[in-house]
Amino acid sequence: MSGDPAQADDLVQEALIRAYGRIGRFAGASSFKTWLFAVGYREFLRGRRKAGLISRLLETLAQGEAPEPPRGPDAGMDLQRALSALEPPERAAVLLCDAGGMSHPEAAEAMDAPLGSVKTYVRRGRDKLRRAMEGDGDDQP
Question: Domain 5-134 has what CATH class?
Answer without folding.
Answer: mainly alpha
